[in-house]
């Protein structure tokens, strides 16, 4: 019972921290209309977690990963993904621009966000599947990658449809391709790559724990 209370207290702490960060980044965003569009994702995820909380409470690991992803997303929503000034921050810290050091010609924050989607959310997706009855094993590691791939593709279609419906300036801001015609394919590939890394690490950790359990037995 005490463990359950500590767990819920940890989850509430993460919620409180996120609300503070969300509130700070909601102040004077770069583009209010784009900020509102980007926050539809947050509203949808929050609604899903609230509606399903009686059946699924994320573990500490899963909750922390979700928290980290949402913080990255909120940073992109505040500045718009194509204008997050990470290069200026790095230059202020080191005296040199990160883009110049790595030879990048575009703002890469959106790439980080898509990679983080797979890397940080594949494990929570797996946890949900296992709680729903999927047996831990091969398919519990493969299916989250499939889900990341499919949802990433759906999101790219939503972005494309949104850009068509919205007026030119807001549509381009929401789409954030930065004149890269292969932007959707690269985003999907990065999300899948992040999910693959997450599931490889999960598989290694699970196998190590099983071996230690067998040794202890």
Describe the structure.
- This protein has about 220 residues and is mainly α.
- About 80% of the residues lie in helices and about 0% in strands.
- The chain has 9 helices and no strands.
- The longest helix is centred in the C-terminal third of the chain and has 34 residues.
- This is DUF2238 domain-containing protein.
- InterPro entries: YjdF, YjdF-like.
- It holds the Pfam family DUF2238.
Index terms:
mainly alpha, 9 helices, transmembrane, 217 residues
Shape: globular
In this structure, how is the largest beta sheet organized? none
Radius of gyration: 19 Å
- One letter per element, helices H and strands E, the order comes to HHHHHHHHH
Pfam families: DUF2238 (PF09997)
Organism: Stutzerimonas zhaodongensis
Keywords: Membrane, Transmembrane, Transmembrane helix
InterPro entries: YjdF (IPR058534), YjdF-like (IPR014509)
Task: Draw up the topology in text.
Blueprint: H1 2-25, H2 32-51, H3 60-79, H4 86-94, H5 98-102, H6 109-131, H7 138-165, H8 168-175, H9 183-216
Organism: Stutzerimonas zhaodongensis
Transmembrane segments: 36-52, 64-81, 188-205
Keywords: Membrane, Transmembrane, Transmembrane helix
Quick structural overview:
Helix content is 79%, strand content 0%. The protein is mostly helical and 217 residues long. Pfam families: DUF2238 (PF09997).
């Amino acid at each position: 019972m005490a463990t359950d209370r500590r767990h819920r207290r940890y989850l509430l702490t993460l919620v409180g921290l996120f609300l503070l960060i969300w509130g700070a980044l909601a102040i004077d965003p770069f583009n209010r209309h784009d900020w509102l569009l980007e926050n539809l994702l947050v509203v949808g995820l929050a609604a899903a977690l609230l509606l399903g909380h009686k059946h699924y409470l994320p573990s500490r690991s899963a909750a922390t990963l979700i928290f980290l992803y949402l913080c990255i997303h909120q940073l992109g929503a505040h500045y718009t993904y194509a204008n997050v000034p990470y290069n200026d921050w790095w230059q202020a810290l080191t005296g040199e621009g990160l883009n110049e050091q790595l030879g990048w010609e575009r703002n890469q924050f959106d790439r980080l966000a898509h990679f983080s989607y797979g890397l940080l959310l594949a494990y929570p997706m797996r946890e949900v599947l296992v709680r729903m009855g999927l047996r831990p094993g091969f398919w519990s590691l493969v299916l989250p990658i499939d889900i990341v791939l499919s949802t990433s593709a759906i999101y790219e279609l939503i972005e494309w449809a949104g850009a068509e419906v919205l007026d030119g300036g807001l549509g381009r801001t929401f789409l954030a391709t930065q004149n890269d015609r292969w932007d959707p394919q690269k985003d999907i590939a990065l999300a899948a790559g992040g999910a693959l890394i997450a599931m490889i690490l999960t598989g290694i950790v699970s196998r190590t724990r099983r071996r230690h359990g067998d040794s202890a037995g």
